[in-house]
Amino acid sequence: MLLYEGAMEFSxxxxxxxxxxxxxxxxxxxxxxxxxxxxxxxxxxxxxxxxEREKVFFKAKGGEITIINDDFLTTNTIxxxxxDLIVTSPPYNVDIHxxxxxxxxxxxRYLEFTxxxxxxxxRLVKPDGRMCLNIPLDKSKGRREEGFQSVYADILTIAxxxxxxxxxxxxxxxxxxxxxxxxxxxxxxxxxxxxxxxxVIVVLYRNRWKKTSGSGISDITREExxxxxxxxxxxxxxxxxxxxxxxxxxxxxxxxxxxxxxxVGDVVxxxxxxxxxxxxxxxxxxxRGIGVEIDRNYCELAKNRLIKEGNILQTKLK
Length: 318
What we know:
Layout: E1 2-5, E2 9-18, E3 21-30, E4 32-33, E5 56-60, E6 65-69, E7 83-88, H1 107-124, E8 125-136, H2 151-162, E9 165-173, E10 198-205, H3 222-228, E11 232-234, H4 240-243, H5 252-261, E12 267-270, H6 277-285, E13 288-293, H7 296-309
Parallel strand pairs: 6-13, 7-8, 7-12, 9-11, 12-13
Antiparallel strand pairs: 1-2, 2-3, 4-5, 5-6, 8-10, 9-10
Helix pairs in contact: 1-2, 5-6, 6-7
């Protein structure tokens, strides 16, 4: 896509693959379409995403980036078989203080919730669709009477039960052991805690691993491919204070997942958008992005970050 950009408007020549053919669209539009608005100059193909206007909180880049203010479990704004890649980090149920979600429900209810959203997500991805699911290895915070829980093992089991197929697990080494404060019984065999300073990114797919849909254009470099196909990723987490969200993940996480597991122009979904990091990566990497967020304040946060950090009037993250 070639962009000729002004302060708030741009003209564009789009090349989009529709079926077996590449089509060219010429248009002139405002780059940012505010809450619920539509662009009369936008030319859409029948294969493009359909969303209910009243649920669309924000659009950018001519509708290529969309924030939906809705509950992912009940929303009907995303067509089945339309998503190439899901990148998300659902609530961990470790008593994090979100504005519109209880993160301390009983573990059995949390697993029921997990099964519901995983089943729905499976319906939305294409037959060769994939998911990168960032979750904790285990759980040792929150409802104390429940003790420690094998979150990774339990969620992976549920994912396979509802139909997802397992491909791999990436270990994300956050290198934050210096911030550790929970030791259990200090220097005693009575009840010591063993805590791994890592999270995992589970890579799943729907029907087949080999990707045949999409543009076929990859933007990953040789060095990135060699480094990122090593299943241990080491980079720091994100600052809650800087972002203004209780559980943000760093841009590096969706950036790696998107470049490694999707083609340029693919549709990427984050069903628990939070502070909007996944959509920022989509905007910078030439992917179409959809984020669903139940809390309107977090939708506003994500929108502001997209405008500020997503470089909406610029082009591409290298």
